[in-house]
Write a structure and sequence with these properties.
single chain, about 550 residues, alpha/beta, FAD/NAD(P)-binding domain, six-stranded parallel β-sheet, 22 helices, about 40% helix, binds flavin-adenine dinucleotide
């Protein structure tokens, strides 16, 4: 297996106006999975694409970073549906030219600590069912009805994706059919659906144990968002060998092969619109890149509140539309480096989800009202244990990552300060959260005690800093039922020449953003051009 040198972690080409080609066919804002997928597919169709990334490295939430001799991922812990030649796997293979490889996690890929009880999810539909029946022997009927519901929700999910990918007129023409396929899927909450199947609150909590993967607990999330996540991980979790940065690293060559480039330190200040048509982008340094085709993967809030001039966003109705959606919650991250390998310390290839009780929504409410209340969920991931290549890059060490929710508002007052220089009071607040999260870790992973060599804490301000999310949103727009109903969240905008892609137009997750890239490309080039490309991807 190839060993990846950590010095290659910073990927992309540093932006300088003199390094730009004069004749790009398309400009993509943001190098996350949505932007890179769109850029790579357009490149394959013969377009010269310029990707502009404000951060120092490419990849968006799939980037990794290195400090103190350790390496962490910021927005990838596990990906589903890549252990077999599924549509997802074929797409990753196509984009990466087969260079991106996957390592399976343990069969028990998620473990849920719910109060003083422990439940889990195991890989494989049959195994998942049997494991649940073992844990809840009186609930066999409810479990079977749940799995049947997950199967049926596939229709609603495909109808949702199809509706987003089709031109508005075509989508309108088949809208009764789409609505029938999606019947009720947006408005019924996860809690309503599951409490219709069983009264066992621990079973409901176990089924919802992955709510953090889309950011809304069961009384706030539409069942469809729940089903999307549950189906995605039903056959287990996989980790990109070499670290999540390998995702962008293996896709960029496709963009370069088409004559394009991915530029870093390349912050776009404005999408320039003349006569209600896109004519280019203005960079933070004032340089104008002229291009009549701009694809924004920077999130819809950024696009319409910060990049498109206010008068144009307003005239096209986008400022009003933005009132129908809300940002997802922010998060705290703890990035931990340990002396000793994952094997020596006994770190698992299983994610831990730690909950104070089965009342997930109540715990969120209590915490949002009082930061000293118990964390409503603490997620612990062991990336070096999942990555068979980690030891080659960082011998004798291992890593752990912790994620917990936290609203942006608690940190907002330091927003104008520079990263690393936000002052003592900010550091004290951060350190307090970090210590509490480390205590949660030691409670469940006592063998880590005494092995921790380094750790640091991130806040929603960090997400704002490296990802450009104005309110430190964990997943872009919150996955509410209202959001899923918004037909304007689609690739084609009302401003000719401006297209959208990324998690906001479909759903969160690396796969959600990747599929958004696919439907954006499809919307841009039309079915006739896309047909042969789809054949190449899915043959
Ligand atoms: C803590 C955490 C854990 C997660 N875990 C998982 C997981 O285990 N599995 C999974 O599938 N998903 C996970 N996700 C979600 C997943 O990472 C995202 O949904 C997905 O990667 C989003 O891709 P995107 O392309 O839409 O956006 P992003 O990756 O956010 O890309 C947007 C890019 O736009 C850039 N940008 C913004 N403004 C500008 C500008 N003005 N000029 C230039 N560039 C700009 C940003 O810097 C960023 O790079 C996680 C997310 C988080 C935060």
């Amino acid at each position: 297996m190839a060993t990846m040198s950590p010095s290659t972690l910073r990927i992309g080409y540093r932006y300088r106006p003199g390094r730009l080609a004069p004749d790009y066919d398309a400009v993509v804002i943001g190098s996350g999975m949505g932007g890179l997928t769109t850029a790579a597919l357009l490149s394959d169709l013969g377009k010269k694409v310029c990707v502009l990334e404000q951060h120092y490295t490419a990849g968006g939430y799939t980037h990794s970073y290195e400090r103190a001799g350790y390496e962490w991922d910021v927005g990838v812990h596990y990906i589903g549906e890549v252990g077999a030649p599924t549509r997802t796997r074929k797409m990753f293979d196509y984009l990466s030219g087969g260079d991106l490889k996957w390592a399976p996690m343990d069969d028990e890929y998620d473990r849920f600590y719910i109060g003083d009880k422990v439940y889990n999810a195991v890989a494989g539909k049959r195994e998942f069912r049997e494991n649940l029946v073992r844990q809840f022997p009186d609930e066999e009927k409810a479990i079977d009805r749940y799995i049947a519901l997950l199967d049926r929700s596939g229709d609603a999910l495909s109808a949702f994706g199809m509706g987003r990918g089709m031109p508005p007129l075509a989508a309108a023409a088949i809208s009764p059919w789409l609505a029938w396929k999606r019947r009720g899927a947006y408005r019924r909450t996860t809690w309503e659906v599951l409490s219709g199947l069983t009264d066992d609150e621990n079973l409901i909590a176990t089924l919802c144990g992955q709510w953090g993967d889309m950011g809304l607990p069961p009384k706030r999330s539409p069942f469809m968002a729940h089903a999307m996540i549950a189906r995605h991980y039903l056959y287990g979790g996989y980790y990109p060998i070499g670290g999540s940065w390998r995702i962008a690293d293996t896709i960029i060559p496709k963009i370069q092969a088409g004559g394009g480039e991915v530029f870093t330190y390349a912050k776009v200040d404005e999408i320039v619109v003349e006569d209600n048509r896109v004519s280019g982008v203005r960079m933070q340094d004032g340089h104008l890149i002229e291009c009549d085709c701009v694809i924004s993967s920077a999130g819809v809030n950024n696009t319409f509140k910060h990049l498109v001039p206010e008068e144009i966003a307003s005239r096209n109705g986008y400022l009003r539309e933005l009132e129908t959606v809300e940002p997802s919650l922010g998060h705290l991250g703890v990035y931990i480096g340990l002396k000793g390998t994952a094997e020596e310390i006994g770190l698992p290839r299983t994610n831990y989800w730690i909950y104070p009780s089965h009342d997930y929504d109540g715990a969120v409410d209590r915490f949002l009202g009082d930061p000293d209340a118990p964390f409503p969920v603490v997620y612990v991931s062991f990336p070096s244990a999942k990555d068979p290549d980690y030891e080659n890059r960082h011998p004798g060490t291992s890593t752990i990552e912790i994620v917990a929710p936290a609203p942006y508002a608690w940190f907002e007052k330091w927003n104008d300060e520079t990263w690393g220089k936000r002052g003592d009071d900010y550091e004290v607040l951060k350190a307090g959260f970090g210590e509490r999260l480390m205590d949660v870790l030691y409670d469940k992973v006592p063998q880590a005690r005494g092995k921790v060599d380094y750790y640091e804490v991130s806040t929603p301000l960090s997400t704002n800093w490296f990802g450009g999310y104005q309110e430190g949103e964990l997943y872009g727009l919150a996955h509410t039922g209202e959001r899923l109903e918004q037909d304007w969240l689609r690739p084609k905008t009302r401003i000719p020449g401006l297209w959208l892609t990324g998690q906001d137009i479909l759903t969160c997750g690396v796969t959600g953003a990747m599929m958004a890239g696919l439907i954006t490309t499809m919307s841009m080039v039309g079915p006739k051009t896309m047909g042969p490309l789809l054949k190449r991807i899915y043959s």
